Amino acid sequence: MASAEYNATFSGSHNHGLQAGYIAGNVETHHHYPVERRETPPRPFLSIPFGRDPDFVDRGTILNQLHHRCAAPGSRTALVGLGGVGKSQLAIEHIYQTNERSPETWIFWVHASNAARFEQGYRDIADTVKLFGRRDPKANIFKLVHDWLRDSKNGKWFLVLDNVDNVHFFLNRPDNIQGQAGYENGGADRPLREYLPQSSNGSILITSRSREAALELVDQRDIIVVETMVQTDALALFEKKLGKKVNRQDIIELAAALEFIPLAIVQAAAYISDPDRGCSVRQYLDEFQKSDRKKIRLLDRGKGQFRRDWEAENSVLMTWQISFDSIRQSRRSAADLLSLMSFFDRQGIPEALLRDESRQGNAEPSDGDDTSDSESPSSVSDEFNDDILILRRYSLISVNIDRITFNMHSLVQLATRRWLEVNGELERWKRQYIRNLNAEFPTGEYENWAQYQVLYPHAKSAARQRPQERDPLLEWAAVLYKAAWYDWQKGNGAEGEKLSVKAMEARKKHLGPEHGDTLNSMQMVGLIYLLEGQWMEAEKLF
Questions:
Q1: Distance separating alpha carbons of residues 340 and 431, to the nearest angstrom
Q2: What is the distance between the alpha carbons of residues 517 and 116, in angstroms, rounded to a whole number?
């Protein structure tokens, strides 16, 4: 008996799946995509996911620089700076102003933090301009968009690549990136950055936390560094966000405490403006200044910023911790250096206390790595300089004119210590910091006066970083004792008392009241009491 043949045809673009009963033979299914028809492209318009910020504060000459550089045909410009300093906000304002001046210009926004988001951004462009061929599953969407942008007949365009912090995927071909469009297309044989067109009818603006990443896409001369705000701009932003009259001196103090960082200011303003909290600027400032714990609690609240990508953190602490993770992934030694630097006073961090010979006792060995003993001093120095360069390119540290000391924002230090705590490494790096400082801190001799002046601020910082374990705690007490001696010699009784009492109490607890170091600490406390005129308190210690 001849077998029956059945044919079924389904039309429409939303059908999927097929069910059948008992089948004794072979089954063939054929899926035919509907024929794509050419569409009439729309007129040029602004296509970005964010509205204009009515509270935007024009920051000096940055926008003028942007307008000047981006106006050049075929230009590529990068805004580079610490996370939270307002790079994306500057880009948003710039493109709205560009749209006002040149409404016939296409304006596109692509979030480029990873390959998937970059691909989606190019797909959005293809949909926006109704690009023919975009629905073909085998199409190389990167080439389609690239070729459309290069064609001057399509008019002028401006493209923003936001959050280009990890540039590595730009250096690969689409067929080497899992899940990318065009992997079956034989023409997709170029790195993704080659699909960023260089043409006279369009310009590209990049935002990045990493100068190193930006330099893969633009020339050094085309980088605009975005710093924290100056005081007048920070006050203007605060006043706009609060939307009410407040004590100006309180705002000045709070803006300074937040180190004029725009994202931190927006966070604080959102907290203060919350009607359920009933919090004044002064109350927020007083709470903020109580302790590191209070700072973390307030700065971990990511509210008030509506013009950031959904993947971007609104909390300034979390924003920076993403940078820390990226550095650790790409260069562990640079992340270790950042960890150590986070405990020092924010200014004048000495290179001598950071070098590998100071850090190596606490380093985690790599599997099978037995080459450290054979490293030459020059190679160790090169490694250190490379680590410093990475941190500078992320705008996490700066170098002083003397070239041997460094500065950090205190809030970046706080965020780093919080990151270490979350990763279970806080005590490890606190211990290393105290060990390095104690080894470098001189004994009480006048010929060491200059060294005391350099290290004293870092000893005061150490006083706020009490370790938990016995041995580091005794080293901590030694640092505080030496710093108290310096205070006594300078006649600074108030600070010397705080430091010497902490050292004495730690030594009493862990060494006992009769130990020589404990007795020395008691004597130092007594001398400072005499300096302050506290005769009866001093008599108890002699």
A1: 9
A2: 61
Rounded to whole angstroms, how far apart are CA atoms 186 and 193?
A: 18
Residue ranges in the chain whose pLDDT is less than 50: 1, 178-187, 304, 357, 361-374
Paired residues of 78 in beta bridges: 206, 223
Alpha carbons 418 and 410: distance in angstroms, whole number: 12
Q: What is residue 540's predicted lDDT score, i.e. its pLDDT?
A: 81
The DSSP bridge partners found for residue 206 are: 78, 161
Q: What topology is assigned to 46-225 in CATH?
A: Rossmann fold (3.40.50)
Task: Give the list of residues 6+ apart from residue 326 with CB closer than 8 angstroms, or none.
Answer: 165, 166, 210
Q: Residue 112 has which token pair?
A: 């480029």
pLDDT at site 36: 60
pTM of this structure: 0.83
The counts of H helices and E strands in the chain are 21, 9
Q: In Å, how far are 158, 343, 467, 497, 507 from 431, measured between CA atoms?
A: 51, 10, 7, 24, 17
Please give the Cα distance from 230 to 335 (Å, whole number). Answer: 29
Question: What residue spans of 345-446 are helical by DSSP H?
Answer: 356-359, 377-393, 410-422, 426-440
Q: For the chain, which residues make up each domain, given as ranges?
A: 46-225, 231-299
DSSP 85-104: SSHHHHHHHHHHHHHHH-TT
Q: What is the pLDDT of residue 48?
A: 85
**Distance in angstroms between the alpha carbons of the first and the last residue of the chain:** 118
Among 264, 237, 213, 214, residue whose Cα is nearest residue 412? 264
